[in-house]
Amino acid sequence: MTETPARTVTLVVVDDHPVVRDGLRGMFTAAPGFEVLGEAANGVDALAVVDELDPDVVLMDLRMPGGGGVAAIAELTRRGARSKVLVLTTYDTDSDTLPAIEAGATGYLLKDAPREELFAAVRAAADGRSVLSPAVASRLMTRVRTPAADPAENSLSAREREVLVLVARGTTNREIAAELFISEATVKTHLTHVFAKLGAKDRAAAVAVGYDRGILG
């Protein structure tokens, strides 16, 4: 006989794929002790939904058109939101995991996680406990134990690294501003600092130096 959970954990699901949202909603609705309050298709919409519904846990994808997960996590943290954010994504690279955790995510799981592991992770997140998939935990431990290959990487702030990553993906200043919830003028300031610290004359050169020095993976 399955033991009934002591309390119901409320969730908001944030993912740009409707099929994924439907699947997660169905899975949690069918399991005892969970209630899906709402959904969002990007980070910008997630902020409004979380503000309105105040869930215990936000299941957050990272790469979404119209507003990424990292920026949304950072904004929720800045606002002092009660909700805990559990990242659920297909990406486990340094450029995804580190910014998400630095932004304030409570946990980080990959979408291939078994259902029971996901249920346990959501309950742990609701209790304020950190949850990391084995692959992500190993990657973070390696990063912590390994000195940076080049001092220039350390000279970039977390936000400057975020901007450089988006530049490498071909994102315009306006799109970067929208994704990071900052002004275009602030984006240009960050880029000026990145160019100076990397000794680059333009965006393409900064990206090339970023890859060459391991800043972009």
UniProtKB/TrEMBL annotation:
Keywords: DNA-binding, Phosphoprotein, Transcription, Transcription regulation
Database matches in InterPro entries: CheY-like_superfamily (IPR011006), NreC/VraR/RcsB-like_REC (IPR058245), Sig_transdc_resp-reg_C-effctor (IPR016032), Sig_transdc_resp-reg_receiver (IPR001789), Tscrpt_reg_LuxR_C (IPR000792), WalR-like (IPR039420)
Domain HTH luxR-type: 149-214
Residue positions, PTM 4-aspartylphosphate: 61
Domain of life per record: Bacteria
Response regulatory domain residues: 10-126
PANTHER family attached to this UniProt entry: TRANSCRIPTIONAL REGULATORY PROTEIN NARL-RELATED, TWO-COMPONENT RESPONSE REGULATOR
Protein name in UniProt: Response regulator
